Backbone:
């Protein structure tokens, strides 16, 4: 099925505006999981949703993937209204649920192969894609072992293989690399890049910020059901004040010499100067003149995340 | 809302095949069920008058078809609660009605070998005619459809696996063993005859033993049992389809 058959020229794979979701549980106070969240994903993009536990990432992914009704708001996938016509959206999407498991009493090969058959692929295509997906996820050698006998990370790879093999136009992945080792995660990244190169679009959540940074074209940071920051990883890092961090072991009280080079953040017995590369030499010279050592490193997305979410929490209070 | 009223069976056979594979990998549990039935039949053979043996064998076939519903309940709840596989399948072209019915068909397929074994035993104990065999197959199909619909719908109310087995076991054994399924309707209190003919397993068993010439029913009883089975199958499976569509989106 080709996406272009049914898609307007908007160029958006996903468009969500002012999404609200209130969970009502009998006898308990209701929970406002989404509070006016808006976001959009262009076709062919890899987009990451970041946020603390309970921020509303899974809630949004479930709504977008037709598995949950929003309380209000507008959401479209390839210009089709998800709330009104879920059955028209479903053929174009595939989902890796958060902390899901493959059928324990199937093998990885059967899991991927039968899933492709239920999605309507021919046996031949299903066989070919199953083999590729299992190799991509490095579980080809254990393809005939029952899933229940696999390790947690191997089971998760089976889940990811199942969904990647669909090559669906829009993929939702809720913490797809949970419990995977660094090698396995990189395999997933490579497979996801391959998919978007072929035209698929990805929306994923992760708590590994290096993953979000290395993988996504765009990042949304969500806090308490709202987007508090968005942009490329570099945009977000820059919003912290710079892209490099110079760390100098010294008393923060005496840091005024460095204030002109960038933002000063204090750590335990050290100061961090958040700045841009051209300033580095000057800072190092200043430190050397005062007999201090200094180390230089990049500002990480994790630092930006802590800053941006921290600010959002403060604003709330 | 699915705006199409008529069911769409996209993915049905493939999903049924998936479920059958899942069940067949647990061949021990299938072997156990046939073994339990055999032990039960053995005791009837040992302890009861010989004319009750064919009733027990027919009953064990009807019961096997009925407990497919319990397996569907367990399976649907298990893959939703513990595996979140419902999300994998609902966010796909597989229709909700195919998900429900495919699961029922897959579980049935896996439990067909025990049914065939019991069928052969039944043939040895009291040979079938073409008519009684047809009644048997039709009845088993209706009982299965009712039980699978019930199992699927009930599964959606559980949020915890541990809560399931006492309820499911109680429900399916209460309705599958207590009423006249394994023994003649005539041994049941006569003021409860009509009630028994409304329950799917006892209605099914009564129709089969009637067709086999083991215990004749009156014309009115035949109409009652048959109508009950047909109406229950139609209503419950329609409701299960409606419910499956609704349940693909929690909070609808
Ligand atoms: N079925 C539910 N019923 C009631 N409240 C719910 C339900 N599901 C989620 N919530 C609440 O909604 C909020 C958002 O939950 P959600 O699962 O979307 O968070 P998340 O961002 O995915 O978190 P995590 O990183 O831990 O996966 C939380 O406060 C959670 O307790
Ligand atoms: Mg989550």
Residues:
């Amino acid at each position: 099925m080709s996406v272009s058959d049914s898609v307007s020229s908007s160029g958006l794979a996903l468009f969500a505006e002012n999404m609200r979701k209130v969970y009502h549980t009998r006898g308990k106070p209701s929970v406002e999981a989404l509070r006016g969240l808006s976001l959009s994903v262009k076709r062919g993009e890899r987009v990451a949703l970041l946020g603390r536990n309970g921020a509303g990432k899974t809630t949004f992914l479930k709504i977008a993937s037709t598995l949950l009704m929003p309380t209000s708001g507008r959401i479209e996938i390839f210009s089709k209204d998800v709330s009104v016509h879920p059955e028209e959206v479903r053929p174009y999407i595939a989902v890796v649920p958060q902390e899901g498991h493959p059928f324990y009493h199937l093998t990885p090969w059967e899991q991927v192969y039968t899933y492709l058959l239920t999605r309507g692929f021919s046996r031949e295509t299903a066989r070919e894609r199953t083999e590729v997906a299992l190799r991509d996820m490095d579980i080809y050698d254990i393809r005939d072992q029952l899933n229940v006998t696999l390790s947690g990370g191997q089971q998760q790879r089976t889940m990811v293989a199942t969904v990647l093999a669909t090559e669906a136009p829009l993929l939702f992945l809720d913490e797809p690399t949970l419990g995977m080792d660094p090698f396995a995660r990189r395999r997933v990244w490579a497979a996801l890049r391959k998919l978007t190169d072929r035209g698929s679009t990805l929306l994923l959540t992760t708590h590994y910020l290096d993953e979000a940074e290395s993988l996504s074209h765009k990042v949304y940071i969500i806090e308490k059901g709202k987007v508090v920051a968005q942009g490329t990883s570099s945009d977000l890092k820059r919003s912290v004040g710079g892209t490099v961090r110079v760390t100098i072991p010294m008393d923060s009280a005496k840091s005024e010499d460095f204030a002109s080079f960038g933002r000063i953040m204090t750590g335990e017995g050290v100061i961090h100067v958040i700045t841009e590369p051209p300033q580095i030499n000057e800072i190092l010279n200043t430190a050397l003149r005062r007999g201090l050592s200094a180390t230089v490193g990049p500002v990480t997305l994790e630092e930006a995340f802590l800053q941006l979410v921290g600010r959002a929490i403060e604003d709330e209070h | 809302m699915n705006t199409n009223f008529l069911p769409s069976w996209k993915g049905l056979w493939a999903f049924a095949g998936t479920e059958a594979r899942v069940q067949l990998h647990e061949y021990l549990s299938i072997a156990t069920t046939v073994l339990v039935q055999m032990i039960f039949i053995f005791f009837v053979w040992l302890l009861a008058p010989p004319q009750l043996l064919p009733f027990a064998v027919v009953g064990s076939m009807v019961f096997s078809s009925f407990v497919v519903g319990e397996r569907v309940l367990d399976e649907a709840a298990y893959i939703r609660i513990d595996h979140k596989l419902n999300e994998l399948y609902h966010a796909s072209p597989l229709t909700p009605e195919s998900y429900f019915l495919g699961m029922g068909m897959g579980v049935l397929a896996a439990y067909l070998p025990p049914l065939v074994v019991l069928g052969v035993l039944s043939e040895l104990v009291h040979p079938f005619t073409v008519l009684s065999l047809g009644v048997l197959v039709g009845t088993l199909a209706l009982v299965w459809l009712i039980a699978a619909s019930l199992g699927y719908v009930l599964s959606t109310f559980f949020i915890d696996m541990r809560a399931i087995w006492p309820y499911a076991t109680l429900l399916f054994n209460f309705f599958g063993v207590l009423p006249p399924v394994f023994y003649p309707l005539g041994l049941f209190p006569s003021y409860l005859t009509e009630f028994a003919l409304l329950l799917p397993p006892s209605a099914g068993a009564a129709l089969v033993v009637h067709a086999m010439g083991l215990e004749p029913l009156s014309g009115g009883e035949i109409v009652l049992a048959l109508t009950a089975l047909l109406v229950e199958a139609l209503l419950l499976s329609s409701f299960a389809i409606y419910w499956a569509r609704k349940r693909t989106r929690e909070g609808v």
In short: Chain B touches chain A at residues 1-4, 10-11, 14-15, 17-18, 21-23, 25-26, 79, 82-85, 87-95, 102, 248-252 (CB under 8 Å). The longest helix of chain B spans residues 53-81.
